[in-house]
Amino acid sequence: MKLAHKIFLITQKIFVCAFVLLFAQDTFAATDSTKTNIKKADYYIDEFQEKIDLFDDVKNGRVDLDDSALTAYASKVYFKLIDSIQRLVESPKFDEAKRKPIRETVYIQLRKINNRTIYNVKRFDNLFRFILGELNAIQQNKLYNYLSNNTAMAFNTLSIFKNEPCADSFLVFAAQYRTDLVFKNFEAYSSRPYSLHIIEEAAKVAPVKVKRYFNPNDAIYKALKLSNDTAVKTILHIKDKFSRKSNAFTLLDDIVNGKLTIDKADAIGKNPQQYLRAMLKIRAKKNPLALNSLEDELNIYALKFVRELNDLHNDKDETRFASIEDFSAQELYTLMIYSEEEIFTSTFNGLFNRMMVKMGDQSGFDFLKSVGDNKFRTFIKMSAGFGKLGEFLGSMSQLHQQLLMVKFTSGLEQYKDLSQAVEVADAFGSITDSLVLRILRGAIKYEYIRLSGKNDFKGMALYGLFSNLFVERNLTNENWFTSVSQQYALPAFDRIKSSKLFARDSVDRWLIYFYDDEDGDASFASFIKTFTDSNWLVVDSGIYVTIKSKHGRDVNIFANKPKNEYDGQARLEKIFTDNFYEPNVLVHRGHSYYAPKTIEKIKDDTQIFVLGSCGGYHSISTIIEKSSEASIISSKQIGTMYVNNPMLKLLADYINRGEDVEWERIWKDLEVYVKTNPKAYERYLDYIPPHKNLGAIFIKTYNRMLEQGN
C-alpha cells in the first residue's frame, strides 16, 4: 500500500508539472503573439494551413489544383481569407473568451478540407466569408439580422454566437423556419440557460418532427420532460397515450385550446377526409400551434386526393370528382394550393369551378380572408397560369381587386427568403389583363420609392428587379421604369461555356438518379435506348450503367438501375467519392416525392440540374441554395420520358461536340423533335428551360446584387 501511495504521489507531481509547463507554453505563445503576429495564438490554424499548402507536395503558400483559375481561387480562400479572419479576431472588440470559440470553429471547418474536398473551393469560400461577415456583425451590433438572413449557414458557427446576447432570439426565429436544424444541433447549445425555451418553441411548431427524438436517453426528450409549457405537456401526453403514430400531434392547436380532446383528435386523424378538414380549419388561423407540421401534412393529404383525380382524367367529371363533391369551397382551395407540383390542368379547372360554385355570393376577397389568406400568392399565381385569375377577380368589386393585387405585390422585403417574390414574378408572366398590370406597376413603383426612403438596399434590389418585368414586355412608357430597370438589369443566363464543363481533368461527368417507382423501368429502358448510336458506348455493370462517348470530348454518364435504387446509387456515389469526382450534370428521374433526395446530392460545382419529375419548377429556390450558378431544367406540371430522354441526348451531344451549351438553340432543336409526338409536345410546353426560368434568374440576380452590395 505504501509503495502504491508513493507511485500515486510521484505520478501526481509529474502531471502537475506537465500541466504547469503546458500552461506556461500557451501563455508564452499568447504573449508572444501580441508582440509579433497572430500565428502563435492560432498555431493550430496555421499548422493546418501548412498541411493544405503541402497537399501538392510543394510548400509555397498556395496549392496546385491542376487548373490555374481554381488554384488562384483556392489560394485566396485557404490562405488569404483565413488570415483575414485571424486578423479580425485580434480586434479589441473580442476578448480572449470570445476568441477561443472563433478559433475553434475556424479550425473545425478547416479540418474538413482533405484531398477529396479541397476542390470544393466555393463551398469553403461561402463558409469562411460567412464567418468573416459574422465577426463584423458582432462588432457592429448587427448579429441578429446577419444570422436571420443566413439561417442555414449560421448553424455551422453555433459555437461563435451561442454566447452572444441575441443567440436566444435568433434560435427562436430559427425554430419557426428551420426546426430540423434547431433539433439537430441541440447538443451544441444544450448547456446554455435558454436551451429549454428554444426546444419548447421548436416542438410547438413541429410536433411531428420532435416526436422522432422521443427515446428514453435522448437529450431533447429529457429536456422537454422538464417543461412546464402546456402545449409541450400535451405533446408528451399524446406520445404516452397513443405512441408516436398518432396524427393528433398535428391537431395540437385545437387540443390546447379546448376544441378537441386528445382521444377525439386521435380518432379524427385516422379518417383522411375528417383529418384534412380539421387541419384546414386550424390552418385558417394566424400562427396556429404546430404550423410546420400542418404545412407538411396538408401537402401530403392534398396530394393524395389530387393524385386520385389526376388518375381519373379520362373518366367523366361526375365520376372523376365524386370523391370531393361534398368538399367546401375552402377545402377545394386547399387541395389546389397544396398540390401545385402535380395538379393537372383539368384537375385544377374542375376544382376551381366547383370552388366558385360553392362560394355562392361570397366575394373572392372575403373568401381569401376566410382561409386566413393562406398561400394566397400561390393561388393567384396558379389562377393566372391556368387562365382563371380574371374569373376569380370578377367575383369582387373593383376596389377589392385593387386592394388584393396591391397586397399581392407589397411587403415582399419582409420575408427571409425569396419564395413570395418568386410567386409574384411567376404570376406576372401569365397576367394579361391591362387593369391588373396597371395596378401591379403602380404598386411596384410605390414599394421601391418607399424602401429607397428607408435606404433599404435589399428591398430596393427586390423591387428594382421587378421593374424589368414591365420594360421587357413593353408594358410601360414611363421613364422611371426604364431608368430603374437599367440599374437592376436581369442578366441573360442563356449559356454555359464548354470550358466550365470540362474544367476538372477534361472530363464532363453526369450522375443520374433513377428511382424504383411504377414508371422507373420503362423510363430507364427508354433512356438507354436513346443512347444506342455509334458515338456512345453503354457499359452494363449490374446495378448501374456507364455511358461513354467514343469520339469528341470525353463525356461519362453514370446512372443507377431503378430496381437497384439504394445499392446502385450508393455504388455510384462511392465511385465519385473515391476518385474525387464531382458531377457537372445531375439528373433526377423519378416522381416528385423522391426529388428532395436528389436535390440533397447537388454540389457547389453542379453546372446543370435536370429535375425530370412533376412540378420540379417549384423547387428552384432550394436548388439554387445548393448551387448558386446551376442551370435548372424543370417542368411546371408533368414530367415525361418522352421529353426528358431526347432532351438529355441533345444536351450530351452538344457537350460532346465541345460546343457551348446555348439553351435557346437546344430548346428549339428539342421542340422540332417532340413535335412529331403530340402528347410529348403538350408536355414539352410545360417545361421551363434555364433561359426562361424567371424565378431562377430572379433569385440568382438578387443574390449577386446582395453579394456586391455587401
Description:
- The protein has 710 residues and is of the alpha/beta class.
- Among the domains are: 1-28; 37-141, no CATH class; 496-692, Rossmann fold, CATH 3.40.50.
- Helices cover 60% and strands 6% of the residues.
- The strands form 2 sheets. An 8-stranded mixed β-sheet has the order 3-4-5-2-6-7-8-10.
- A hairpin with a 3-residue loop joins strand 3 (536-540) and strand 4 (544-549).
- The longest helix is centred in the first third of the chain and has 34 residues, at 2-35.
- The N and C termini lie far apart (69 Å).
- Mean pLDDT is 85; it is low at 1-39.
**What is the top-level CATH class of one domain?**
Alpha Beta
Low-confidence stretches: 1-39
* Category from helices, strands and their pairing: alpha/beta
Which strand order does the major sheet show? 3-4-5-2-6-7-8-10
Residues in helices, as a percent range: 55-70%
Task: Tally the helices.
Answer: 39
Question: What brief labels describe this structure?
Answer:
Rossmann fold, globular, 8-stranded mixed sheet, alpha/beta
Overview in brief:
With 710 residues, the chain is of the alpha/beta class. It is built from 39 helices and ten strands.
